[in-house]
Inverse folding.
């Protein structure tokens, strides 16, 4: 053990002097009874000089155990030696000086390393614990000798397995250091404010601490009191909450076993069994369509047993009850039906059925059973009320996830197919049925030699703006909560309120620095668990406190129970932008399909992107001509301009002013697309064609070569291409559309793009969309368009030349 002890750099000495000081103060008490007891204790102590001053050899205590117990009576309740869990220890050591019977029974010192968690993490080894003690000792030195208070310690939980029932019990360990002092040996090292701040900012760097505060300059003298408080119920509730938040909470045997063990620990019933039933409806007649979730006591091989008297069973009773129904002894129940006898055959003696309700609707049942009559009682149901609410929420999530899987399976077998290509799927299925089997292997659906068109309207900096909205909402909510605590402290200064205010301020600081998801969740959990429950009590402090609490509560969203202002504005803005773009595209698609049938799909995220595939292979009848491809490309440019104008119309309605950039990807070489069975969508086929997909995923972040400028810019349309003939074709379209009033003249720019992973050698055109759409006459009279185009030809040529010179630089 000596190498391990060396990790703690300070000398530790047992001393009873600070406890004796307490008795000496008590001897001067005006209470005659207390003073008489104190004088008696001191007279015995004064007669034993071996116990005076530092005690380096603990064996010195052995002959005087009764006297030590008498002295410790000031710390340990004599009447609670068996159920009080405390011990006096050498400072920062695990050497016991005195302990209660209850503490010894838990074997905390013997099993501390292997059965202790700190902030939810298992204590890795004795070495890490000793380093932690060293850090704690240094913080105590700063507090006592330099006036620098340290924060709240981390929760320490010790797990004890009760030999009586083999169930775990959880104890929160706290250290009372009122009878220990960090004594200065020699001179106290002087520290300025800058040095103190550096130490506080780097608490785990023991090398720095030992260099600034040499350990030989200090000695820890006295003793500490280790207390263990039973927190089994709180720990099990917290563990159950975490378990029920897991995605597979009800779907795996391991997770059900874990939940069952938690309930056994909570109720102190080692043989309790858990079952879960999902209901099709909250009418008992739908019980025949119920199904087990994970496992159920009533079900046998996934089927409910036949029971002609089921309407008299306890399962019917729970349908009509808002509270759990308890049967202490099934053998003496008023109406034993086939359901009850089925449970008795499974050695069930006592039973509790709890209704799982979500938003008032009965969605499931929780079964809890014991083989011992009378083991489960109404008190068991009362202790589980909060837990049942957690099970209800988890059941709702499980049912929603299951419904999603059902829908996915339906789509897997009966996928909705785009009308343009439906004929191909119908033919494949018909050919399979002709083979005489519904399970026939259907041929893969592939379309060769189709031309892709891709368009994107992307909301700029959406991730950053979303994060800023979340951050601002969180900081405001924390600020409102801090205002309540500060106002309450002005009426009644309490250290506990100061501590809560400090923690709120720390969360504000963390959110201002970096509002990560972890910070947000931790802050909101803290507000809900530690701050908001105080508000009902704090309203009695004064009218101004009550007003701040009312302001806080009124600021929260009633459904989400969080401050949801800027994030709501952001999400409503994104939804309005997406809806505007999507609705316009759908409307324009009707006319585009009339040009020539083609495959079209779109996706909404932070903006809208879409794919178009066109070619002869896609149509069952008819011939494809490149003119139709030209029409679609021209339609795409005109439609993108229309998107810009549509967004301008709704700009004033946006709660948050977000900008949108627009991009088109060009590929002249046809490719093949294949229907992916696993994803139920079309994807490009072949390694060469995969480059097209890679480019699609990355070009929205493309930079102009040699600059930090993004290619896509609000109010412009960027056209990305790789071949010069693609650029020539699109310049013709742009000349026409500039003449028609869709784009501003003299704004066509040409760029080389920075190489991206999997996408190099790309170029782009960029053109500014006109501030307003052209009038209808210009749109429908091609003679006028041609006339205007001829007039603008020289200017267009100059613009083209200038752009070409810029791109070659």
């Amino acid at each position: 053990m000596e190498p391990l002890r060396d990790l703690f750099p300070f000398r530790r000495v047992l001393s009873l002097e600070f406890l004796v000081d307490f008795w000496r103060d008590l001897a001067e008490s005006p209470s005659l009874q207390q003073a008489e007891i104190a004088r008696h204790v001191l007279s015995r102590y004064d007669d034993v000089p071996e116990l005076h001053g530092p005690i380096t050899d603990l064996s010195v205590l052995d002959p005087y155990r009764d006297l030590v117990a008498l002295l410790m009576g000031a710390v340990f309740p004599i009447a609670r030696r068996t159920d009080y869990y405390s011990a006096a220890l050498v400072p920062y050591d695990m050497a016991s000086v005195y302990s209660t019977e209850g503490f010894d029974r838990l074997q905390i010192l013997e099993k501390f390393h292997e059965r202790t968690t700190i902030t939810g993490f298992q204590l890795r080894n004795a070495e890490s614990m000793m380093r932690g003690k060293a850090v704690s000792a240094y913080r105590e030195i700063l507090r006592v000798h330099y006036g620098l208070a340290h924060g709240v310690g981390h929760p320490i939980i010790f797990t004890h397995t009760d030999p009586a029932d083999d169930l775990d019990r959880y104890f929160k360990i706290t250290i009372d250091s009122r009878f220990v002092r960090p004594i200065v040996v020699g001179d106290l090292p002087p520290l300025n404010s800058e040095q103190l701040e550096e130490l506080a900012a780097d608490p785990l760097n023991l090398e720095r601490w030992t260099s600034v505060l040499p350990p030989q300059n200090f000695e820890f003298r006295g003793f500490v009191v280790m207390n263990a408080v039973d927190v089994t119920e709180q720990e099990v509730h917290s563990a159950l909450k975490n378990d029920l938040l897991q995605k597979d909470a009800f779907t795996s045997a391991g997770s059900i076993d874990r939940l069952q063990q938690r309930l056994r620990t909570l109720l102190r019933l080692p043989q309790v069994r858990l079952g879960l039933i999902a209901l099709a409806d909250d009418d008992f007649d739908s019980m025949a369509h119920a199904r087990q979730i994970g496992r159920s006591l009533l079900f046998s091989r996934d089927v409910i047993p036949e029971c002609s008297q089921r309407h008299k069973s306890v399962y019917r009773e729970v349908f009509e009850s808002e509270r759990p129904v308890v049967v202490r002894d099934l053998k003496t129940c008023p109406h034993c039906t086939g359901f009850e006898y089925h449970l008795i055959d499974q050695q069930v003696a006592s039973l509790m059925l709890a209704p799982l309700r979500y938003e008032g609707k009965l969605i499931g049942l929780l079964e809890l059973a014991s083989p011992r009559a009378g083991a489960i009682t109404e008190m068991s149901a009362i202790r589980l009320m909060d837990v049942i609410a957690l099970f209800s929420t988890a059941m709702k999530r499980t049912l929603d996830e299951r419904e999603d899987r059902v829908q996915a399976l339906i789509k897997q077998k009966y996928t909705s197919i785009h009308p343009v290509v439906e004929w191909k799927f119908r033919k494949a299925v018909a050919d399979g049925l002709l083979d005489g089997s519904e399970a026939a292997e259907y041929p893969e659906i592939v379309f060769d030699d189709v031309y892709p068109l891709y368009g994107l309207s992307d909301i700029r900096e959406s991730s950053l703006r979303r994060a800023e909205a979340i951050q601002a909402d969180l900081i405001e909510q924390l600020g409102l909560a801090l205002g309540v605590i500060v106002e309450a402290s002005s009426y009644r200064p309490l250290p506990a309120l100061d501590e809560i205010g400090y923690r709120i301020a720390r969360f504000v600081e963390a959110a201002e620095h970096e509002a990560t998801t972890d910070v947000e969740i931790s802050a909101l959990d803290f507000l809900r668990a530690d701050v908001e429950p105080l508000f009902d009590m704090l309203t009695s402090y004064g009218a101004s406190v009550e007003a701040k609490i009312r302001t806080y509560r009124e600021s929260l969203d009633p459904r989400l129970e969080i401050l949801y202002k800027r994030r709501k504005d952001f999400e409503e803005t994104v939804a309005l932008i997406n809806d505007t773009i999507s609705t316009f595209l759908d409307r324009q698609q009707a006319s585009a399909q009339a040009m020539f049938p083609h495959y079209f799909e779109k996706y909404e995220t932070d903006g809208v992107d879409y794919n178009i595939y066109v070619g002869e292979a896609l149509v069952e009848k008819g011939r494809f001509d490149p003119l139709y491809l030209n029409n679609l490309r021209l339609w795409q440019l005109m439609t993108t301009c229309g998107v810009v104008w549509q967004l301008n119309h709704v700009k004033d309605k946006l709660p948050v002013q977000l900008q949108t950039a627009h991009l088109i990807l060009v590929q002249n070489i046809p490719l093949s697309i294949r229907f992916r069975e696993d994803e139920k969508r079309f994807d490009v086929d072949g390694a060469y064609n995969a480059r097209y997909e890679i480019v699609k995923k990355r070009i929205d972040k493309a930079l102009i070569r040699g600059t930090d400028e993004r290619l896509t810019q609000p109010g412009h349309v960027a056209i990305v291409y790789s071949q010069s003939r693609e650029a020539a074709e699109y310049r013709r379209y742009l000349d026409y559309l500039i003449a028609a009033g869709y784009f501003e003249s003299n704004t066509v720019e040409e760029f080389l793009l920075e190489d991206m992973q999997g996408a190099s050698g790309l170029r782009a055109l960029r053109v500014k969309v006109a501030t307003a759409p052209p009038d209808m006459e210009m749109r429908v009279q091609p003679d006028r368009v041609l006339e205007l185009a001829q007039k603008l030809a020289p200017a267009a040529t100059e613009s083209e030349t200038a752009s070409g010179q810029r791109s070659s630089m």
Remarks:
- The two ends are 74 Å apart (CA to CA).
- The first strand starts at residue 11 and ends at 14.
